[in-house]
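Input (structure):
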């Protein structure tokens, strides 16, 4: 604080230079007079004041930085909401391109430049670090963009009042805020996800679907209740139980064989290539189960990692992610192929009940896809939906429709399922102290980078499954991906703002690190989700075919 300008600097009021001199003299006088107990008491009080002063100077700029960051967060969310209202809804009239082109915009720009220069001058006078300029100037930029188009919010308010939608909008925002708060609590207590699953499982019973689509509604409810069990179980830790892995593989193989036989009988767009790919996947899943059994048995008897099992594990890992590209891009076959590929790799990395969780998550996501299709106004037959249509029909204009209230639910479900995929069988602590037994099918010699990559793959697989389903939902209900991503962006930023206020700088290192980790996870969600969706889009749209009498090509 020595570089701060004296005009603005405020020293610690309870221990200025004069007070320090007086306190030191008092302690010295007490020691000289032999009043050692009083001297110790006075010294402890002085130490307490010194620590309070140290905390005062360490947090001297906290109010300024907190205010700037909060204003930037709120301004960014307001700007994203403005984009949603203006470009992805029909409640705001399309304004003339000449509107706002008068002197108002120029005056606002001049005012913005003047305010930013004044703020920069104040920061320069106080010798503030360069990062302070970013924190303090960013809110001015964001709010200038928002205030420049403030008429969009007034138009939206008028539209809702004229159509008597104001109470509906307020109710939706309130419920959404409570739901996002539950997501925040799930970072601290995984049990909250079970409560959320029960809530969303019972929700369709309040709609008309309970009369017209009983199978879909009750299938969704049963899936939610089954998956709700896993957050109540202990996190997957150092205790291994391969019986769960074998049960998961057996159930998945039996169910997959049933689907393949049924598809062949009903001839649901099943080509020979599709049947061959799915049959090969079932074989690979069985081989993966055998590898897990042989590896666990060999290591238990101190016989080391079988070389053949290790080679097969790496081969399955390399081929599993390419299998979806050999499948049809029709919705059901492609999602089935993706699920089998991810489940096969996940089996090799499983040590306990996490495989059962992934299997239950597949059922839940299937029910979600069915439910969204039934509630959508598009009314498409999911069996005929192509996830990768021709470029001329796969344009924004072809799929373009405006957002509605139900799309907010769809965006929230995506964010909810992403967190469920992470906290369903683990937490941050379980990732930091991972069990090396998860990678024993691939290697047993300590290799931090390879082990870390495999553990990261295990964490990402449920995310990929959710993102692939989300892409299918977006195609089925015919809503542009950008619209849903903007809604997810607002929710994740709201979560990040909440975690910002929960960051601690006192307490144990575990408490401080946990709060910082929560904030970082919420912040990186905005970067992680688009990357995850890009990979999921590749897995659901790319296709390699071998037509008779022609060379292979990629669609």
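Output (sequence):
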């Amino acid at each position: 604080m020595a570089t701060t300008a004296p005009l603005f600097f405020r020293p610690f009021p309870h221990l200025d230079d004069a007070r320090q001199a007086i306190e030191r003299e008092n302690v010295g006088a007490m020691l000289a007079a032999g009043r050692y107990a009083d001297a110790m008491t006075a010294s402890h009080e002085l130490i307490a004041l010194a620590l309070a002063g140290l905390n005062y100077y360490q947090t001297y700029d906290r109010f300024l930085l907190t205010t700037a960051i909060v204003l930037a967060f709120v301004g960014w969310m307001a700007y994203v909401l403005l984009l949603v209202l203006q470009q992805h809804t029909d409640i705001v009239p399309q304004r003339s391109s000449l509107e706002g082109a008068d002197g108002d915009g120029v005056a606002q720009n001049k005012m913005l430049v003047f305010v930013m220069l004044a703020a920069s001058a104040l920061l320069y006078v106080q010798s503030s670090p360069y990062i302070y300029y970013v924190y303090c100037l960013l809110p001015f930029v964001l709010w200038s963009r928002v205030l420049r188009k403030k008429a969009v919010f007034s138009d939206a308010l008028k539209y809702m009042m004229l159509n008597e939608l104001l109470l509906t909008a307020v109710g939706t925002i309130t419920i959404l805020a409570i739901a996002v708060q539950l997501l925040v609590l799930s970072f601290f207590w995984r049990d909250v996800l079970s409560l959320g699953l029960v809530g969303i499982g019972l929700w369709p019973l309040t709609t008309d679907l309970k009369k017209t689509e009983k199978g879909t509604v009750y299938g969704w409810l049963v899936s939610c209740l089954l998956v709700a069990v896993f957050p109540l179980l202990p996190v997957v830790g150092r205790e291994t139980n391969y019986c769960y892995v074998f049960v998961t593989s057996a159930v998945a193989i039996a169910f997959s064989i049933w689907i393949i036989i049924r598809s062949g009988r009903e001839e649901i767009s099943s080509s020979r290539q599709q049947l061959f790919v799915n049959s090969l996947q079932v074989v690979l899943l069985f081989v993966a189960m055998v590898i897990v059994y042989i590896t666990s048995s060999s290591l238990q008897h101190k016989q080391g990692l079988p070389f053949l099992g290790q080679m097969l594990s790496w081969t399955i890992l390399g081929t599993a992610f390419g299998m979806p590209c050999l499948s049809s891009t029709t919705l059901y076959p492609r999602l089935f192929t993706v699920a089998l590929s991810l489940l096969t790799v996940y089996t090799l990395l499983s040590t306990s009940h996490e495989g059962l969780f992934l299997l239950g998550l597949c059922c839940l996501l299937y029910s979600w896809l069915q439910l969204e299709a039934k509630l959508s106004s598009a009314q498409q037959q999911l069996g005929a939906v192509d996830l990768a249509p021709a470029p001329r029909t796969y344009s924004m204009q072809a799929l373009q429709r405006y957002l509605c209230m139900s799309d907010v639910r769809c965006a929230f479900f995506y964010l909810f399922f992403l967190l469920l995929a992470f906290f369903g069988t683990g937490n941050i602590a379980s990732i930091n102290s991972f069990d090396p037994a998860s990678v024993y099918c691939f290697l047993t010699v300590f290799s931090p980078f390879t082990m870390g990559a495999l553990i990261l793959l295990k964490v990402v697989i449920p995310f990929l499954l959710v993102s692939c389903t989300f892409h299918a939902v977006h195609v089925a209900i015919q809503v542009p991906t950008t619209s849903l991503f903007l809604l997810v962006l607002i929710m994740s930023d709201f979560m990040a703002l909440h975690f910002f206020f929960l960051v601690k700088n006192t307490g144990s290192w575990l408490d401080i690190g946990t709060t910082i980790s929560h904030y970082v996870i919420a912040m990186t969600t905005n970067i992680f989700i688009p990357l995850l969706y890009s990979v999921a889009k590749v897995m659901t749209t790319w296709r390699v075919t071998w037509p008779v009498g022609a060379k292979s090509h990629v669609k």
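Notes: Strands lie at 544-545, 553-554. The two ends are 62 Å apart (CA to CA).
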